[in-house]
Amino acid sequence: MKKVFAFVGLTAALAAASQAAAAGVTVTLACGTVGQELQLCKEGAARWEKKTGNTVKIFESPNLTNDRLGLYQQQLAAKSSDIDVYQLDIVWPGLLADHFVDLTGKIPAAEVKANFAGIIDADTVDGKLIAMPWFTDAGVLYYRTDLLAKYGYKAAPKTWAELATMAKKIQDGEQKTNKAFNGFVWQGKNYEGLTCDALEWLVSFGGGTIVDKTGKITINNAQAAKALDTAASWIGSISPKGITTYSEEEARNIFQSGNAAFMRNWPYAWALGQSADSKVKGKIGVAALPSGGAGNAATLGGWNLGVSKYSKNQAAAIDLVRYLSGPAEQKIRAIEGGYNPTLPALYKDKDILAKNPFFGSLYSVFTSAVGRPSGPTKGKYNQVSQAFSSAVSDVLIGKVKGQAAVTKLATDLARIKGRGW
């Protein structure tokens, strides 16, 4: 789906961000703005400034990943030196590799190997380390512990069917005094977030991963169709009709305001849910996402830091990446923002576990998360993902049923593959 980007003022903003500081080197860092991302990014950059005497200018990236990718591609295609360090989605290295510095040998091998091997693999393209892991992600289920107890439930749902039953019972009860209450909120907007949610449905129902590791298109099957039809059945029942406009923050705001029993989101929502102004502080549980009959599934997310080939300050930019991706900064981000470390050793850190107890109990969820098919589809991944999310969206809005959607999608993907991936 084509996006319309708000580039008004972009040139001026980047020009200001790239002006040289009075002393030392100035590095421009593109940061995300979802949840606490921007604030923690600024604070980490400030600590590096103090340590090195250099200056970091922050460029605030769009919230939606599709919008952010479009902006990045525009800058990189122009070989712009305005941004030195980019925050990259885990599925982007193969798409953007030609524009980034190979960090192999520029960051000590021991520091690289300290990360989860799967994430390093995702950041490596044709033997070149395109980015360093900053934080990892996997979809999880948030639930109201107080409401489960109130309605007689002792544990989080294990299956999607159980979730639907529990969500409906709680929703019906709560709506007697709160008409704004929802059973289940998630990411239903047609963007990369929907690809993540829907991939979890597919895998948990045994419907494959859209495209398998060999590059074979696998989406056209009955279980995939069933998964999509099941999700569509939630809309207007346990999920609001407006769910097809929700991204991460819309879902989080509803849950955090006390107006939902369950929510699918990323780990970052935990720390915000425990904040002083949260209406559900102390009432949140976190569990693995339910099964559709083939086990639990969580989509692998996470963000990484890469240095642009067009940067005029590559040495300083690499040092900034090394610093921000190091254990000290990852620990701070885990404690203050609930961002999952990419370093296995930090999952045993008592300070981190005290703030994020589910990091320990759901460790296997994070380490066995399902990757989107960016590897086998390479530079065509974005087209594949957009075709998939659009097909899913058609089912959610009632335009088509699941089987018709996956049949057509298989044909569309074959056309994309025909041009080579």
TrEMBL record:
Signal peptide: 1-22
Entry superkingdom: Bacteria
Keywords: Signal, Transport
Pfam families: SBP_bac_1 (PF01547)
Recorded family membership: Belongs to the bacterial solute-binding protein 1 family.
Name by which UniProt lists this protein: ABC transporter-binding protein DR_1438
Species name: Deinococcus xinjiangensis
Lineage: Bacteria, Thermotogati, Deinococcota, Deinococci, Deinococcales
